[in-house]
């Protein structure tokens, strides 16, 4: 951590104690430092302080809140290199990707700093002459979030920025594997002038305790969660008792489809970007590849060649494209899925081997069938199973044959087919001739068991606002 110039970003690190959480580097296994392991009482205290701070914050004008958020955005970008290095060290992704995530995460703060000034109400034509009808938008109150390890800054800012812009306070529990990025980003929020009790990071190894506390707290009005569908189900059940508002960004099983009229070179480029970013550890990355028969061999040959050229290594090394998996469990899952697929007849076109430590070679599997476990499960690793298909109808049936509905991708140059397939895919997001689709200006979210609610765009701030109807009588 001696490479970090702005030492204030490491202010949350503490001494090694029996209760502290050790944060390691997945590329080396070395301990980077320690963060607090907060107790239930400490988290409850943070929530209570957030409730008091929210009352003051909500009285600020949207412009005043915007000015502080824009200062936070500027500080994130000024410290982009330090934040990227912290992220690469604790999460493993290549430094170029970490820089990109800092910019991506900061973009939500910039966007919602402006969007907060546009939370308009309405004047509604009245059916009675002696009345006037209007609506206003008000913050829901205290919002809480549980965020994952794969995007440790962006998943904080994508939720905190609209909440704060709306006038809410925000308590977040980042993943225990990657808390340093969250603490560093929030430290810059404090330097921008945001009150400490208004935006709080809590860390604990007891994720179940924190989730139950958030869901059961009478002081928290809103829960936002990004993670697995299984955990999302639990949080929704727990939140039902207090009828709490929730937004859930859950699991994905994204199809990546290459039609016979596609630009194959563009499809290969998009496939590399979609599948192997963050070593395949993203909820929107391509999980299964469907390629039409007549272009199957051409795509596989070009795709396999491109994959074979990806460099594996520590994220701080020059030219590295594939970093480590987050932990041993993630690596074991990848190995299990490949073993199962090859036992059922799949062939390894490239990769498929352990690369030591938590590293695994980027892999392309051919002769894969739709019923294999590697197609049905979310892989969350650098493995690309490629499946043949004949016609559009059978393709749609296979692509939609999943409980998930987050992201999907396809390549075609036929405008009629583009509209037909985009409308037929049962997913919240569709990338057409593009492998990377996330942006702050578009709504991010899924359908089916990939979650509810949207983040980003104008819809993102709606998750943190209540609409109040006011009727003025006796006019």
UniProtKB/TrEMBL annotation:
Keyword Magnesium on entry: no
The Aldehyde dehydrogenase domain, residue ranges: 18-470
EC number: 1.2.1.79
UniProt record, GO biological process: gamma-aminobutyric acid catabolic process
Keywords (A to Z) from UniProt: Oxidoreductase
Single annotated GO MF: succinate-semialdehyde dehydrogenase (NAD+) activity
Active site: 249
Domain of life (superkingdom): Bacteria
Family membership noted in the UniProt record: Belongs to the aldehyde dehydrogenase family.
PANTHER family named among the record's database cross-references: SUCCINATE-SEMIALDEHYDE DEHYDROGENASE, MITOCHONDRIAL
NCBIfam families referenced in this protein's UniProt entry, alphabetically: SSADH
Protein name: Succinate-semialdehyde dehydrogenase [NADP(+)] GabD
């Amino acid at each position: 951590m001696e490479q970090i110039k702005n030492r204030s970003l490491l202010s949350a690190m503490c001494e090694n104690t029996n209760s502290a959480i050790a944060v390691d580097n997945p590329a080396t296994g070395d301990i980077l430092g320690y963060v607090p392991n907060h107790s239930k009482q400490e988290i409850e205290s943070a929530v209570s302080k957030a409730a008091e701070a929210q009352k003051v914050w909500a009285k600020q004008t949207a412009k005043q809140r915007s000015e502080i958020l824009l200062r936070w955005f500027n500080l994130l970008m000024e410290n982009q290199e330090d934040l990227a290095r912290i992220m690469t060290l604790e999460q493993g992704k290549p430094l170029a990707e970490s820089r990109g995530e800092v910019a991506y995460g900061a973009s939500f703060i910039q966007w919602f700093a402006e969007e907060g000034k546009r939370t308009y109400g309405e004047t509604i034509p009245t059916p009675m002459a002696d009345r006037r009808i209007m609506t206003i938008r008000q913050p829901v109150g205290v919002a809480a979030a549980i965020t994952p390890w794969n995007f440790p800054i962006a998943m904080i800012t994508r939720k905190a920025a609209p909440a704060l812009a709306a006038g809410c306070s925000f308590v977040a529990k980042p993943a225990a594997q990657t808390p340093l990025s969250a603490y560093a980003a929030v430290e810059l929020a404090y330097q921008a002038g945001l009150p400490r009790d208004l935006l709080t990071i809590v860390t604990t190894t007891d994720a179940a305790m924190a989730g139950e506390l958030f869901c059961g707290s009478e002081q928290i009005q809103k829960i936002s969660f990004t993670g697995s569908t299984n955990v999302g189900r639990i949080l929704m059940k727990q939140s039902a008792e207090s009828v709490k508002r929730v937004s859930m960004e859950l699991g994905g099983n994204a199809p990546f489809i290459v039609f016979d009229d596609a630009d194959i070179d563009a499809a290969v480029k998009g496939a590399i970007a979609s599948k192997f970013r963050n070593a395949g550890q993203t909820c929107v990355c391509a999980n299964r590849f469907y390629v039409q028969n007549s272009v199957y061999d051409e795509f596989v040959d070009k795709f396999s060649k491109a994959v074979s050229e990806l460099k594996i290594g520590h994220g701080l090394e020059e030219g590295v494209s594939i970093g480590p998996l987050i932990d041993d469990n993630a690596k074991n899952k990848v190995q299990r899925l490949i073993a199962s697929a090859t036992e059922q007849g799949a062939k390894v076109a490239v990769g498929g081997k352990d690369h030591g430590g938590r590293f695994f070679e980027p892999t392309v599997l051919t002769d894969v069938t739709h019923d294999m476990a590697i197609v049905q499960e979310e892989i969350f690793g650098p493995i690309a199973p490629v499946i043949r298909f004949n016609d559009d109808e059978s393709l749609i049936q296979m692509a939609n044959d999943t409980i998930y509905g987050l992201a999907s991708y396809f390549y075609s140059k036929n405008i009629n087919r583009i509209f037909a397939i985009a409308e037929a895919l049962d997913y919240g997001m569709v990338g057409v001739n593009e492998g990377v689709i996330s942006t702050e200006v578009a709504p991010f979210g899924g359908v089916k068991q990939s979650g509810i609610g949207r983040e980003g765009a104008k819809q993102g701030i709606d998750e943190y606002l209540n609409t109040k109807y006011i009727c003025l009588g006796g006019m």
